[in-house]
Write a structure and sequence with these properties.
The complex is a heterodimer of chains A (230) and B (252).
Chain A (H helix, E strand, L loop, with lengths): L1 H8 L1 H26 L13 H10 L10 H31 L14 H4 L1 H20 L12 H8 L4 H26 L8 H28 L5
Helix pairs in contact in A: 1-2, 2-4, 2-8, 2-9, 6-8, 8-9
Chain B lengths: L2 E7 L8 E7 L8 H14 L22 E2 L2 E2 L21 E5 L8 E3 L2 E2 L2 H7 E2 L2 E2 L20 H11 L6 H5 L6 H12 L8 H14 L10 H5 L7 H17 L1
Parallel strand pairs in B: 1-5
Antiparallel strand pairs in B: 1-2, 3-4, 3-5, 6-7, 8-9
Bound molecules: protoporphyrin IX containing FE, iron/sulfur cluster and FE2/S2 (inorganic) cluster (FES).
Amino acid sequence: MTGVLTLYRSSIGKKAAMAITGLLMVLFVFVHMIGNLKVYYGPGGTPEPMLDVYGRFLREMGYPILGHEQGLWIARLLLLGAVGLHVWSAIQLTERRWTGRDVKYVQQKTLQASWASRTMLRGGVIIGLFIIGHLLHLTLGYFVPNFKDGAVYLNVVSGLKGIAPWLYIFAMLPLGLHIYHGLWSFFQTLGWNSQRSTELLRGLALLVALLVVVGNVSVVLTAMMTTLPS
Amino acid sequence: MNLTLRVWRQKNAKDRGRIVEYKVHDVSPDMSFLEMLDVTNEQLIEKGEEPIAFDHDCREGICGMCGLVINGIPHGPESATTTCQLHMRNFSNGDTITIEPWRARAFPIIRDLIVDRTAFDRIIRVDGKAGGFVSISTGGVPDANAIPIPKDDADLAMDAAACVGCGACVAACPNASAMLFVAAKVGHLGLLPQGQTERHNRVLRMVSQMDKEGFGGCTNMGECAAACPKEISLDFIARMNCDMIKASFVKG
Ligand code: HEM
Ligand code: SF4
Ligand code: FES
């Protein structure tokens, strides 16, 4: 146990914390995207839309070993902890980075660093704001006309109208970049990257990032263009 | 060649410093960058001005003393080359060249283009204890084949040991992180049998000292390896991360 603290006290340890919590979030985001694809089943289905069935599964996860919504709350707390530690480490590491160079260069060239790697902080902040907005919107029902608990499909289709879908689509750009650099970075930070595997790992990160972005954007566009019979 | 130099001039650590423009004439394309600065200084002295202070020693790419940020790139435009080995044929007649010192809080400027890199020394020798070396008395020379070392490991260790401690990695890193230097030093000993005894303590000590010196954190951008005159690979940072994680758990 003291090992964890020894590690976390160092800059490498904080980075490892970012990597592990980041990977947890990448896995979540990926599964979440697959879940979102249920929008394609449309409003029909028996007896309710597929997206609602999926939503109910999330609430009943682990039932009957766990009670109603208990599995969901465990997952939520785990994710909240991950986001919290990720952001906390980000703040501490960023403070180090900002004080590392007190006088700036008059001229500085970037030799090869990717755009994704240079925008991790900015992107992360936008993603953080998006997460808050997204929870207020489709989980709590702010700005969703006729929001009804459990009627996931109806909420999504009526919520993603006007400017909202464009904000969702806009947020996928920093998310994709963050995953592209972050997932490769995860392996480097934990010491599992090497010249022999780096191309493969970059490819994997690109694939996951693209799948998440394309999947989610297509879902948002579909919801946006769906009109409900009133 | 005739050139315009924009050089960082700073009297001492406290001075604010500023860019000053100089015209140099009669530069030969066969000169090294440092020889070009020697010529500039001679021309300055003739005019009764203060010569530009810069660090150098071996002038053959092995000591790690030289180091200038040339047009925004540590050690200049040619890859895998120290400033002393950079030739003026990389530039053209009439060019304007901006020359700055390494910039990092852990490398305070002493004068003009000279920075204080003793932070690196303190990482090599942490509070009097071994960091980047093994604390055994060497004694008599052992037979070369007494301790067998796999060729691949020996080659990798040699790659890491090529680090000359110039600090270009810190200068190039947008975060002024020293991870590549420390990783090279942790890595070359970690790959050899002689380095195993102190392996865990070494990485713990060196990383802790690195953090104390005020270097920035690593964000895996890879600018260090691209600027390194000895082409030290990012792989060594991954290796050090792995060692650091293990050592933390083993040593608590
Ligand atoms: C909640 C707002 C977020 C903020 C403020 C944030 C910020 C950051 C920052 C500053 C870094 C460090 C960049 C670096 O050191 O290279 C980082 C790394 C990372 N982030 Fe985030 N991030 C956020 C959300 C996310 C999400 C939702 C995911 C998953 C999809 C994620 C996955 C990662 C990964 C995998 C890394 C790489 C860790 C490493 O370098 O090893 N982050 N984040
Ligand atoms: S790793 Fe490369 S750039 Fe950094 S100090 Fe060593 S030789 Fe210089
Ligand atoms: S002066 Fe020795 S490496 Fe350049």
